[in-house]
Amino acid sequence: MEGMRRSKTAWGMVLIGGLVALLLPATGLAKGGHDSCVGGSACDGNTGDVGNGSCNGFEACVSNSGDMGNTSCVGDSACRRNTGALGNSSCVKEFACDGNTGAVSNSSCGGFRACQENKGPVGNSSCVGLAACPDNTGPVGNNSCVGVTACQDNHGAKIGDGSCHGDVACDTNAGTIGSNSCNAEGACDNNSGTIGNNSCNAEEACRNNTGAIGNDECNTPHECAQ
C-alpha cells in the first residue's frame, strides 16, 4: 500500500509539472518586449531581441535577426529580413528597413522604403523620408539624408553630419560629402566629386558635379552644377 501511495504521488507530480509547462509562455530564441509583435505573422522566424512597442504590422519582423530598441519596426514588412542592429524609434513605415544589413541609430530610417536594402551604418535622425536611403552602401552621419530620395543609391560614399537635406539632395551620389553640405533640393544630385563642409547649400548647386569642392563654396543655385 505504501508503494502504491508513493507511485500515485509521483504520477501526480508529473501531471502537475506538465500542466504548469503548458500554462507557461513558450520561450523562443529571442526576447520580446511589451506590446510588440502585433499583427499577422509579425515575428514569424524572428531571432533578434525585440524592444517594447516594436515589430507591429503585418510581417513586420519576419525572418529578422537584428536586435532592436523600443518602438521600432512599425509598419507592414518594416523590418522583414533585417540583420542590422536597430536603435529606438527607427524603421517606421512600410518596408522601411526591409532587407537592411546596416546598423541604424535612433529615430532613423523613417518613411516608406526609407532604408530598404541599405548596407551602410546610419546615424541618429537620418534617412528620413520617402525612399530616403534605399540601396545606400556608405556611412551616413547624424541628422543627414532627410527628404524624398535624399540619399537613394548613395554609392559607398561617406556623408557627414547635417548634410543632404532636401528632395533628391544627394540621390545617386558617389563622392564624399562633409558636414552641413548639400542642403537643398537636388543640391548634390548625381555628384561624384569630393565636397567639403558648409558647401553646395542651394538648389541644384552642385548637381552632376565631378570635381573637388572645398569648404564654404558653391552656395548659390546652380553655381557649380555641370
Description:
- The relative contact order is 0.07.
- The radius of gyration is 24 Å and the shape is elongated.
- With 226 residues, it is largely without helices or strands.
- The chain folds into 2 domains: 33-135; 136-226.
- The model is unreliable at 1-29 (pLDDT under 50).
- The chain is built from 1 helix and no strands.
List keywords for this structure.
single chain; 226 residues; little secondary structure
Structural class: little secondary structure
Q: Work out the strand percent.
A: under 5%
Distance between the amino and carboxyl termini: 100 Å
- How many helical elements? 1
Mean of all residue-level pLDDT scores: 90
Total discrete domains: 2
Helical amount: under 10%
Shape: elongated
Low-confidence stretches: 1-29
How many strands, which pairing sense, and closed or not: the largest β-sheet? none
Which H/E pattern describes the elements? H
Output the radius of gyration. Answer: 24 Å
Count the beta strands. 0
